[in-house]
Structure formats: C-alpha cells, structure tokens
C-alpha cells in the first residue's frame, strides 16, 4: 500500500501530530483515610422533560418533514449493533436509539451510517474492522428492504425518500482506516463509501494540511467522496477549504466550529451539521441558529449522533424526536425555506456538487497507483 503517513512532512505546511499528549492527571494534595472520606451525595433528581411544543407548530413540523425529511449527518447504529447479540430493527429495539418505526415518526429520510472504528485499531486492523462494519450495514439494509435502501448518490437518496424508505449512506470512514493507501480509498468508494473523516492522521496536522493530505483531498474530489473535517484543527479546516474543489462537510465536530471557519464554509458551499447533543433542546436550536446566521442557511444541516454513546438533551432522546426541534425553530421564526434546506436540501446539494466535481475532474494519469506519496 502507498504510505500516506510519511516521516518528513513539508515543514512549510505543517508540523506536529494532530493528537497531542494527554494532560497529566491532577493528584490530590493530600490523601484521606477511608474513614475520613466524605459521604457521597445521593444523585439529584432527573432533569424533567421539556414542555411539548405548541400543537400547531408540531403539526407544521411534521408536515414539512413529510416532504422534506431529515438527512441525518451521522448515525452510530452500525457500531452499536456490534455489541448486541440480537435485535429487531424492523419492529422496534429498546436497547437502541434508532429503529425503523422511530425513524418514520421522526421524519428521517436519510442517514449517514458512521463506519468509524475504535481509535486503538490502526493499520490493517483498522481496515479490516471498517470492512466488517461496512458489511454489517449492507447486510442489515438487505434484510430490511421495507425500511432501508442503500444510497450511493443524491438521486438514490431522493428515490428512497419517494418510496417511503430511509436512505442509508455509507460513511464517514475514519482517516486512519485508509491504512496509508489511496488504493484503499478507491476500494472503499467502489464498495459505496461516500464520506471520509480526515482527522486522526499524520497528514492533518495542528498547523494545517500536509502535501500528502492534499493528495488525499484531491483523490476524494476526483472520486466524489465527501471530505469530512470533523475533529480537525481550525488550521486544517481552513487549509482544506482553500484547496478542496468540492463542498466539504463537518458532520460531528466535538466543539463549536469557529466563526471564521463557518464563513469560509459559506464560500466553499459546504455544510456544518449541528449535533442534537446540547444540554437542552433550546440550546440545540441556539447552535443551529448561530450556524445559519454565520454561514448562511445554505450551510447548516442536522446530525442526530444517535447510538454514538453521546448524551442528548431531554426531549431529543432518539430519532423520533426531530419534529420537536423543527417545531422549536418554527416558533423562533425560521422561514420554511430555511427549514427545508436544513433538513434535506443542503445535504442533497452537497452530494450532487461532489458528484459533479468527480464527473468534471480529469481521470488519473496512467502509471503506478501505489507509488508512495510525499508528505
């Protein structure tokens, strides 16, 4: 395999690793004997469910989602199913935050199924685990034809929606699962993968994108694979936005995306997908509104982040709860056109733009395809 992770990255572009050393643990200044330890306080009362939105707003939200359903930027269902010996996605599964009945109630028309694997897996082990997870998704979709339909393009997404199915899009794959090879990226694409996260590799550094990273972005643009900047540093995001020929996505960034990156995202035509993992439903709506106001209504979308192990706000506990969030946005005065772009339009547009870029990009030059890349 061609090695993308070279030891001598271009010093004019980037230095350092993405993941710095873990901060030292904070030790107590003195030790207490077991008898001196304070008694633990009993857990506080559970946070109450938020009040139901107005019936009129909730009905409007459901009507909108019937024609412009949610295109969910990241589902952790594939990873969650690895830890369950048996499940019933078709009839309902209480151990999960996603199943077909709740997808229908929530108005979800498409989902990107994350193929991320545990970070301790590297090299060939990461590639193998990713392929196993990809096989699991394809198998589940085939076993539930009345609920899911595999989607490899924006047209496939629309066809699935029009048939009353939830479109299953494969990705994102984690960058380390390339195994240092553009050939692996091409193989993933041939198997249906349509999104890849750059973070976690030596070619996405703290201070930018190395030349090897630029080669990966260029190949992703040629194939029509979405560049996902989740988890990257702001410097890497800005550098990638400067060189990418197709719109990029930020599907599950752990922190709020800086405003200067959001403004560059507007110029790129990309999309920041805001996760439903805020402390409250209103805070989730606040984050969506901020991204819309900063990057524009054409650059904001939704990520449920369900079945990823991440806590969700009361009232947004599973995929059936999306109408509540849409109702909150309607109550805030969001125009219906902005809602339609948020739920479906922006994700569909980005996919089409990536497909157009791939069709208009010159094919690879003849010659070796496994030649090591300069970092």
Structure characteristics:
three-stranded parallel beta sheet, 39% helix, single chain, four-stranded parallel beta sheet, 375 residues, alpha/beta, disordered C terminus, 12 helices
Description:
The protein has helices at residues 55-67, 77-81, 100-105, 123-143, 154-162, 182-190, 211-223, 234-243, 259-268, 281-295, 322-331, 336-360, and strands spanning 70-75, 108-113, 148-150, 166-170, 173-174, 195-197, 204-205, 208-209, 226-228, 249-250, 271-275, 300-303. By secondary structure, it is α/β, with parallel strands linked by helices. The protein has a four-stranded parallel sheet, sandwiched between helices. Strands 5-6-9 form a three-stranded parallel sheet. It is globular and about 55 Å long. The relative contact order is 0.18.
List the helices and strands and how they pair.
Blueprint lengths: L54 H13 L2 E6 L1 H5 L18 H6 L2 E6 L9 H21 L4 E3 L3 H9 L3 E5 L2 E2 L7 H9 L4 E3 L6 E2 L2 E2 L1 H13 L2 E3 L5 H10 L5 E2 L8 H10 L2 E5 L5 H15 L4 E4 L18 H10 L4 H25 L15
Parallel strand pairs: 1-2, 2-4, 3-4, 5-6, 6-9, 10-11, 11-12
Antiparallel strand pairs: 7-8
Helix pairs in contact: 1-11, 5-12, 6-7, 7-12, 8-9, 10-11
In short:
The protein is 39% helix and 11% strand. With 375 residues, it is of the alpha/beta class.
Largest sheet: 4 strands, parallel
Give the strand line-up of the largest sheet.
1-2-4-3
Name the helix and strand elements from N-terminus to C-terminus, one letter apiece. HEHHEHEHEEHEEEHEHEHEHEHH
Distance between the termini: 15 Å
Number of DSSP helical runs: 12
Backbone shape: globular
Helix content: 25-40%
The percentage of residues in β strands lies in 5-15%
Please identify the structural class as seen in this structure: alpha/beta
Contiguous uncertain segments of 5+ residues: 5-45, 366-375
Give the beta-strand count: 12
Mean pLDDT: 86
Backbone CA Rg: 21 Å
């Amino acid at each position: 395999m061609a090695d993308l992770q070279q030891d001598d990255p271009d010093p004019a572009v980037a230095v350092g690793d993405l993941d710095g050393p873990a901060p030292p643990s904070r030790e107590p200044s003195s030790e207490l004997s077991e008898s001196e330890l304070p008694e633990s306080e009993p857990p506080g009362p559970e946070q109450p469910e938020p009040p139901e939105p107005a019936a009129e707003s909730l009905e409007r939200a459901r009507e909108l989602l019937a024609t412009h359903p949610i295109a969910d930027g990241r589902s952790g269902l594939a990873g969650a199913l690895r830890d369950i010996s048996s499940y019933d996605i078709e009839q309902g599964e209480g151990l999960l935050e996603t199943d077909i009945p709740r997808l229908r109630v929530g108005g979800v028309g498409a989902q990107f199924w994350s193929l991320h694997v545990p970070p301790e897996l590297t090299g060939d082990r990461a590639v193998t685990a990713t392929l196993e997870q990809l096989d699991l998704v394809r198998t589940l979709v085939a076993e539930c034809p009345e609920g899911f339909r595999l989607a490899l393009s924006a047209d496939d997404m629309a066809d699935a929606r029009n048939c009353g199915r939830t479109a299953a899009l494969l990705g994102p794959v984690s960058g380390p699962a390339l195994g240092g090879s553009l050939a692996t990226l091409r193989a993933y694409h041939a198997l249906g993968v349509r999104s890849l996260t750059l973070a976690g590799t030596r070619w996405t550094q703290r201070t930018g994108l190395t030349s090897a990273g630029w080669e990966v972005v260029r190949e992703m643009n040629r194939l029509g694979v979405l560049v996902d900047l989740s988890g990257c540093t702001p410097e890497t995001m800005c550098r990638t936005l400067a060189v990418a020929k197709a719109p990029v996505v930020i599907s599950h960034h752990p922190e709020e995306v800086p405003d200067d990156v959001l403004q560059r995202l507007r110029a790129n035509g990309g999309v920041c997908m805001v996760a439903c993992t805020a402390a409250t439903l209103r805070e989730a709506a606040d984050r969506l509104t901020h991204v819309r106001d900063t990057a524009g209504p054409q650059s904001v979308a939704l990520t449920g982040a369900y079945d990823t192990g991440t806590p969700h706000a009361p009232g947004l506990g599973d995929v059936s709860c999306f109408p509540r969030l849409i109702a909150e946005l309607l109550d805030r005065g969001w125009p219906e056109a902005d809602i339609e772009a948020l739920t479906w339009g922006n994700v569909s547009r980005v996919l089409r733009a990536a497909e157009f870029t791939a069709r208009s990009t010159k094919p690879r030059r003849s010659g070796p395809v496994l030649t090591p890349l300069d970092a």
